[in-house]
Here is the input.
Amino acid sequence: MSEPSTPALDERAAAPASAPRGGSRLKLGEIRHLGLIVALGLLAVAGLVTVPDTFATASNLVSILSLAATIGVITVGATFVIIGGGIDLSVGAVMALASVWATTLATQSYGPFVMIICAVLVGTGAGLINGLLIAYGRLVPFIATLAMLVAARGLAQRMSDRKTQLVQQGNEAIVDLSTTRVLGIPLLVYVFAVVVVLGWVLLNRTTFGRRTYAVGGNPEAARLAGIDVRRHTMLLYALSGLCCGIAAVLIMARTTTGSSTHGDLYELDAIAAVIIGGTLLTGGRGTIIGSILGLLIFTLITNLFILNGLNTSDQLIAKGLIIVVAVLLQRRALRSPV
Here is the structure.
């Protein structure tokens, strides 16, 4: 008579073969990362050739990192959600709502610490609502997060009366995240780096990360293995909302404002960065490092278009083409034997 299996063993059995556990899959992931690094190098060469006087300057490099920091924090949360088999279209609107709520006069009167806590709680709360609707309300993630996108953006507009809210005097501690530099790099970039490191550890060195791969790879097998799939799905969206709240603090620091227009199309940039980084839209495979490399590719493209004075619409077309190519390459990789 066979012994009953333990949850830990069942989780490993439920985890998809694509989870990063060494062997050929790890080498395949390294190859993907190497390809992304090569793409970054080619973009850097393009910048040095087309705008040599401005691209390699310290101020431009800091600008690239600062721009990547805000979307990057959101990208970390989006990576977890997509690996877990979901999608979150509301991240930009949730970030805008968190920034508006945190910069109301009532909130600012309590000081910068309360503003930061408010932004984080609003973002996490919105993500938790998404998770509850999807996990327990049985709504399709696309529909639930689309509804949150519309509702969060509308609530932000109503709260701010469609006006930009300035960070008032006395709350300079938030602005200091953007203006204060350590080794020439703004503090908000260090915040981004800390989020990336914590996200990597959570995904690769904890039970939560293993369960994320398992739920995204095969939800039914994960359920049979003893994983509470609904609760885990809810937590994934709450984590995404938490990242939106942190991103709201960073954008308040960069712009010294809270606005309902913040984060416009950020959801597309974050999802695109995750896809470029090798995460499957169907879930079960992906890495934080790949997503960040994908983000840096998109950020460099944006920077090069700006420096060369190219049309914004052309930039969007280029990003769209990159997304299509990335998805086609994913499908081809899935058909190919490993």
